[in-house]
C-alpha cells in the first residue's frame, strides 16, 4: 500500500516533463523510421527483425543514461535529494521507488516500440513469419536484460551527476555495437553490454528455425551472468544508498 502511494506521487511529479515525453515519442519515432525503411528494403524478414532489435539494444544505454539523469536532476533541483533521502521511514525505499518508476516506464516504452513495429511489420508490410508471441517475448528479453544498466546508471547519476550518466550511456552504446561483432564472441556472456543484443538475436535465430547450442552460443552462461549480475547490482546499490547522504556538488 505504501509503495503504491509513493509510486502515485512519483507519477504526479513527472507529468508534463521531458521524462514522460521521451518515453512516448522515442518508441514511436524509432519504430516508424524502421518500418519506413523496411517498406522498400530488400533484406529478408529475419535480417530485418534482427537489425531492428539490435538497433534497440544499441540505443538503450543512451536512453537509460538520459532518463536516469532526468530523474536524478529533478531530485537535485527540488531540494538537493533531501526529499528522496528523508521522505520514507525506510531510507532505501526512496531509491527503490525511483528505480521502479524508471523500470515501469522502460517496460512500457519497450513494449510500445516493439508493439508498433510488430503491428506495422505484420499488418502493413505483410511480413508475418513471426507471430505476436515472438515480439512479446522479444520485448521481455530486451527489457529484462537492461535492468542491470538502469541500476548502474541511476546510482551513477545520483552520485556523479547527469554528465556522467549520459556520457557513460554513449560509451556503452558503442560497446554494445562492438560486442555484436566478432569482437564479442566468447566474452559477451559476461559483459552487461552484450546481453540485450545477443539475447534477442539468438531468440530471433531460434524462432527462424536455426539449430543453436545453448553452450556453444554462450546463452546459458549469459542468462546466469545476467540474473546474478542484476541481483548483485541491486543489492550493492541499496547498500550504497543506505549510506549515501546526498551529492556534495550538484552538476
Task: Describe what you observe in this structure.
With 251 residues, the protein is mostly helical. It is 76% helix and 0% strand. It has 10 helices and no strands. It has helices at 2-13, 18-38, 45-79, 82-86, 92-124, 132-144, 147-160, 162-179, 192-207, 219-243. Helix 3 (45-79) runs antiparallel to helix 9. It is globular. The two termini are 35 Å apart. The relative contact order is 0.14. The mean pLDDT is 89.
Rounded to the nearest angstrom, the distance between the terminal CA atoms is 35 Å
The helix/strand class is: mainly alpha
Helix fraction, binned, reads over 70%
Order of H and E elements: HHHHHHHHHH
- The total count of strands amounts to 0
| Shape verdict | globular
Helix run count: 10
Q: How is the main sheet built?
A: none
Low-confidence stretches: none
Q: In percent, how much strand structure appears in the residues?
A: under 5%
Mean pLDDT: 89
CA-based gyration radius: 19 Å
Quick tags:
mainly alpha, 10 helices, 251 residues
Write the layout of secondary structure elements.
Layout: H1 2-13, H2 18-38, H3 45-79, H4 82-86, H5 92-124, H6 132-144, H7 147-160, H8 162-179, H9 192-207, H10 219-243
Helix pairs in contact: 1-5, 2-3, 2-5, 3-7, 3-8, 3-9, 5-6, 6-9, 7-8, 7-10, 9-10
Amino acid at each position: 500500500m505504501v509503495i503504491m502511494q509513493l509510486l502515485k506521487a512519483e507519477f504526479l511529479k513527472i507529468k508534463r516533463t521531458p521524462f514522460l515525453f521521451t518515453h512516448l515519442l522515442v518508441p514511436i519515432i524509432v519504430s516508424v523510421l524502421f518500418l519506413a525503411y523496411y517498406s522498400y528494403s530488400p533484406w529478408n524478414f529475419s535480417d530485418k527483425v534482427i537489425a531492428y532489435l539490435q538497433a534497440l539494444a544499441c540505443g538503450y544505454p543512451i536512453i537509460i543514461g538520459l532518463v536516469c539523469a532526468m530523474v536524478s536532476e529533478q531530485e537535485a533541483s527540488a531540494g538537493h535529494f533531501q526529499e528522496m533521502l528523508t521522505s520514507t521511514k525506510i531510507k532505501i525505499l526512496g531509491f527503490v521507488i525511483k528505480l521502479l518508476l524508471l523500470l515501469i516506464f522502460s517496460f512500457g516504452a519497450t513494449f510500445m516500440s516493439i508493439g508498433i513495429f510488430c503491428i506495422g511489420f505484420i499488418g502493413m508490410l505483410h511480413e508475418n513469419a513471426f507471430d505476436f508471441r515472438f515480439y512479446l517475448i522479444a520485448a521481455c528479453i530486451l527489457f529484462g536484460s537492461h535492468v542491470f544498466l538502469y541500476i548502474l546508471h541511476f546510482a551513477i547519476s545520483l552520485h556523479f551527476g547527469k554528465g556522467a550518466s549520459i556520457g557513460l550511456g554513449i560509451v556503452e552504446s558503442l560497446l554494445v555495437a562492438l560486442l555484436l561483432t566478432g569482437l564479442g564472441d566468447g566474452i559477451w556472456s559476461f559483459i552487461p553490454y552484450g546481453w540485450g543484443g545477443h539475447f534477442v538475436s539468438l531468440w530471433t535465430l531460434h524462432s527462424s528455425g536455426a539449430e543453436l547450442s545453448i553452450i556453444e552460443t554462450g546463452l546459458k552462461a549469459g542468462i546466469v551472468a545476467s540474473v546474478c549480475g542484476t541481483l548483485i547490482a541491486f543489492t550493492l546499490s541499496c547498500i550504497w544508498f543506505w549510506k549515501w547522504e546526498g551529492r556534495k556538488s550538484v552538476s
